Amino acid sequence: MAQKCVHKGCGKVFTDPDEECVYHPGPPEFHEGQKGWKCCKPRFLTFDEFLAIPPCTAGKHSTVDDTPAEPAKQKQETQLAADQPRLKPISSTNTVTPVVPNQDATTESLSSIAPPQKPSTPDPRLEEDSDDPDTPVPPNTTCKRRSCGKNSADTRRDTECTYHPGIPIFHEGSKGWTCCKRRVLEFDEFMKIEGCKTRTGHCFLGKRGKKTDGSASEEELQDVRNDFYQTGNTLIVSFYLKKIDKERAKVEFLGDGSGVELDLPTSDGKRFRRKVETWKELVPEKCEKKILGTKLEMVLFKKEGGVGWPVLTKGERTTGERIQIGGPLRA
Length: 331
Fold this sequence. Notes:
This protein has 4 helices and 21 strands. The protein is mainly beta. Among the domains are: 3-60, btk motif of tyrosine-protein kinase itk, CATH 4.10.1130.20; 92-118 and 223-301, Sandwich (Immunoglobulin-like). Strands 13-14-19-18-17 form a 5-stranded mixed sheet, with no helix packed on it. Strand 4 (28-31) and strand 5 (34-37) form a beta hairpin. Keywords: Metal-binding, Repeat, Zinc.
């Protein structure tokens, strides 16, 4: 009788219990943007690279999952499973500690500062182009959209594709996607979250944009991981992208204080563009940027000091939680 192996990294259907199985015996680990498996060393920043890490252990197939359970979390994480998680601070001597007060008092206190929620509309930045219908698809190619998983060997290109247009988000044990509300605590349950968007046509090849000089192709990134923490007068914001080309990168703090314009090409043929409209106004002449090996880090100065921001950008969903404010950074 055919059975499906439950080992992580395998997932094959087998009939011979003595058949060799290659898998990950350890649980997944996610920390400060790094993603990998506890049983082996590779660590990556993107979720797609994490999924492509080759299994590290050979054994036999199994229908019983013997992977060590993830460490137990605090009781408050059961509440986070139903809500959009807060953004995680990056390390700093001025890092502040999020405080979760009484829920009724929190909701009331935020009602005076949180902007009215806009009607839910699709974010055009999360859209992915379908394949060029004139370009042949190589055999045994998997759809590139997240959580689709359809293979060109048994699926026509023009059939319906159900996927997640957003990016994975992991915070304090809560796991989910930026494009939908469902949150779970276990990694296996996260992998089973069904796509939240359906469109006709799969993306087996993907579509790449052209560089301005037309000399070579360049991959346009739809989104990258970002986070922030704040003090009384500043926000320290990070956009995680490896190999940013410092010579060609453009980070413009808009003169009207409405946000930041990003154009971040990389040395390995990728590019990320985004206009970040901040929740409240900034003081652009004081803002600073620093391009590091794995990220862009910015220090944004608030025009209205001493006010805690529940979110970074306009229109972003608030969580009903207060973020405690620390002391301002010194020049």
